[in-house]
Every structure is written in C-alpha cells, then in structure tokens.
Amino acid sequence: MRKLYVHNSLSRQREAFDPITEGYVGMYVCGPTVYSDVHLGNCRTFTSFDVIFRFLKHLGYKVRYVRNITDVGHLEGDVDVGGEDKIAKKARLEQLEPMEVVQKYSNGFQQMMETFNILPPSIEPRATGHILEQIDMIKKIIANGFAYEINGSVYFDTPKFIAEEDAYGKLSGRVVDDLLQETRDNLKRQDEKRDPSDFALWIKADATHLMRWESPWSTGFPGWHLECSAMSTKYLGPHFDIHGGGTDLKFPHHENEIAQNMGACKCTPAKYWLHANMLLLNGKKMSKSDGNSVMPQQLFSGESEHLSKGFAPMVVRFFMLQAHYRSTLDLTNDALLAAEKGYQRLMEAYKSLQRLDTKAEATTELDQEISTLIEGAYQDMCDDFNTAKALGKLFELATKINALHNGQLKLEDLSSKTLAALKEAYHTFLFDIFGLESSVASAKGEEELIDGLMNLIIDLRKGARENKDWGMADKIRDTLSALAVQVKDGKDGTTWSKK
C-alpha cells in the first residue's frame, strides 16, 4: 500500500498517515443542517471529502465514512444557547411540522450530492435519532466533573476543563486567555452560566419550542456540538482516525467536540483533523445580504448576475478539484469558463486514448515519461490529497495522448504494456478518484452511440466526395462545424473531435 501523508490541523504539520487499525479507516465529517437548501460552500467541502473517501478506498483501505445530518438545528443568534431553533423557526414560517422541513431539505441535499456525483457515506446518522446517546454522554461529562446543571439546562465547565486538561484552543490556535475573556452579553440565559465561555450541552425548552425531548434535567433539546461527539463515538469509537469539516467549524464546534469527548472518556475523538477551506465568489466571502452569492442550481442554469451562462455539474466539480482542499477557491465566471475547457480537454483525451492500440514491446523514453507522470499523479494524491497537482499530471498525459492520436508521436514508440497502464490510470483518476462522471457505464454507452453515428456520417461524407457531390460533402462539413465538431482527414483515414 502506498504511503500517505496528511496535514493534521491539530498539530499544524504534515504527518504520515498511520490508521489506528491497520487496513481500516474511520472517518467522520460534519454534515449539513437541513433547514434550507445546501449552499455551494458545503458542496465544495463534501466534494473534497468525497475525493478523500474515494482515494482511501482506492489505496485499499476499508473505510467507514460517517457524515451526519443535523436535524435539531442551529440556534438563532448563537450555536449554544438562547434564540430559536432554525428548523423550528422555518417550520413556523412555512406552517409545517419540523420533520417536514427536515425531510424536504434532506431530500434536496441528497439530490444535490448525487448531482455532484458525491458518493453516499457508509452511515448517515441524524441527530434526532441519537438523543439517548447524547443524554448518556452528558451524564458521563457530569460524572467526570466537567459539566453542571442549572434551572434544567446543562453547561460544559470550560474553565475547569482548561485548568485540568491541556487541550482547549489547540485545534483552533486560539489563546486560552482570550477564550475565557469572551463575553456573549447579547444572548439569552447568560446569567445561568458560571462563565461566559461555558457552552450548552442540554437546553431547557420553553413552552413554545417545537422540538423537545425528556431528559433527567428537563424537557429540552441538546446543544449543537454534542450530536457529533455522540454519533462519532457510537459508530467509530471514542478514538478514530479522521475528523473532517469546513475550516469555519474549527471554533467553536470542533474545539468543543474535543472538550466533550475528553470530558466524557478522557480521550480526543480523532487522530487526524482535516479541514476544507472556504469558497469565495469574485474574491469575496459569499453573502446573501450583500448580493455576493450563488446557489448550485443557479450555477447549472446560469440564472445569476455573476454568470454569463450555465455550467454542467461535472464542470463545477472539476473546477473545485483545481485547488487543494486546504486552499481558498475563488469562483468567477472566467474561472468556470476555463474549467469547462479543461474538463472537455481531459474527456476528449480519454476518448482518443480508447482508440489507441499498439503491439510494440520494447521500453522506450516515451514509456518512461508516461510512467513517471502516472507515478507523479499518485505521489501528488498521497501528499495530502493534492488534486490540483495530480490534475496537472493528467493534463501532461493528455498532451501525450493527443500527440499519439494525431501522429505527432509514434505509436510504435509506446509499448503495449505502458499503453494498457496509461488507459487504466487515466480511467482510474478521472472516474474512480476524481469522480468526474456520474456513470461510467452510461457514459460509455453514450460514447459508443455517438461514435457509431459519427462513423456513419464520415462514411456518407466520404461517399459524397468520391461521387464528387461537393454540395453534400460541404453541407456535412458545415453542419458538423456548427455543432463544434472538427473533422480531420489524414493518411490513416478521417477522425473527428469536438472543438
């Protein structure tokens, strides 16, 4: 198995990836809160971890990938206490039951994941299905002295945890003194807390709150951070390999997850923490209030002031893979247009590659160059899943493929063994690792149909030319040209490609 290296957000260093159990990987990624349509930043995060999931499996690991659904909701004004549950608020506004809101937006989320060809996780637990596990974890945290109950609500004792465990602030890189001095005077129930930095584990529900459960402390609902601690522990154990999410979750969500897990079982939840960076729009953070935002469906339809046209989902996915997952990515119309051309170039090269054949056996300089590029793509992916660099290697391979297809490089200078390896690697990276088509079988079927029709058209054109029916030959040529299809006549016959 190839050696993999990852950038651990906790240590801020590149580390060799050594799973807790050889051959197995447990990975937890924070999923969506389903009170509205999934936004494009989420799509980028889930695309990044989809590639990580795919590559880990390709390397031979047996991966249990857990990605939760938050269906209790973040709270208005704060993620810990006070305000109104966003799902409850949405239900009130739309005159629906909370679970209707959850189902509606969960369905939309799943459909968008399929549109982007994002594989489903191994387990997709919902917060509302794990209330008992969350209550049990709170009991353990209280028993270990890191939480207290007051007026039916339970709070995590942050100062005590900091005093006894050297952990808080390590992931986010925030200074503990600054964390302790934070105030939240604009929020409700501040007078209940022993310290402003304490956060809610259980919140007593008022009479109007729609989502509520019985607990030893009150009829209420769990704090936002608790669900991930409880569900990751249930399905991956108290200490597992990878915890992922967007970089915006480092604090307070992931920092508080670590505190909760250590408060309950005296161990950190994950060995490696991976964080995907932000998606910008025209160089700025996306914001609906500022008009600087675009939804996934608008990207596909082109119905946005920021776009000149619509773009296919696979073009958008390809665009996202052009940057390393830890780097910010700037979405612009020009960048999408360039991504569309790049995506088409790789797909055209793939199609041309399928037509190549050789019987040569001797190893040449060309064999070595192609083998080096293939190995380089693997090395790039093994270096913290660097899709941007790996795609660069695929573009270099595309140049070689096109040169072989067009006769600029001689097929007899390429051994059959290397050609077979090239076909396998190119297919593997495009479809299995990068996930750039939703169905390879379907794509192949469509490709065979198109190839058959084009071969028929080329034969008709050839017959028209042999019969000196120049009008028909010109009509075929002009019609194909209008459809962005380029026909090339060579000594070995006529070939076609998309412009």
Structural summary, described in words:
By secondary structure, this protein is α/β, with parallel strands linked by helices. 47% of the residues lie in helices and 15% in strands. The chain contains 16 helices and 16 strands. It has a 5-stranded antiparallel beta sheet with strand order 5-6-7-9-8. A 4-stranded parallel beta sheet has the order 4-3-10-11, with helices on both faces. The two termini are 40 Å apart. Mean pLDDT is 90; it is low at 74-82, 183-187 and 438-443.
Residue share in β-strands: 5-15%
Number of helices: 16
Placed side by side, the strands forming the largest sheet appear as 5-6-7-9-8
Give the low-pLDDT segments: 74-82, 183-187, 438-443
Rg, alpha carbons: 27 Å
Shape: elongated
Mean pLDDT over the full residue set:
90
Helicity, as a percent range: 40-55%
> What is the count of β-strands?
16
Outline the fold blueprint.
Layout: E1 5-8, E2 13-16, E3 24-29, H1 40-58, E4 62-67, H2 86-94, H3 98-115, H4 131-143, E5 147-150, E6 153-156, H5 158-164, H6 176-181, E7 199-204, E8 213-214, E9 219-222, H7 224-236, E10 240-246, H8 250-265, E11 270-276, E12 279-281, E13 284-285, H9 296-301, H10 313-321, E14 329-331, H11 333-355, H12 365-382, H13 387-406, H14 416-433, H15 440-466, H16 470-482, E15 485-490, E16 493-498
Parallel strand pairs: 3-4, 3-10, 10-11, 12-14
Antiparallel strand pairs: 1-2, 5-6, 6-7, 7-9, 8-9, 12-13, 15-16
Helix pairs in contact: 2-3, 4-7, 4-8, 7-8, 10-11, 11-13, 11-14, 12-13, 12-14, 15-16
Which features does this protein show?
four-stranded parallel sheet, 499 residues, 16 strands, five-stranded antiparallel sheet, alpha/beta
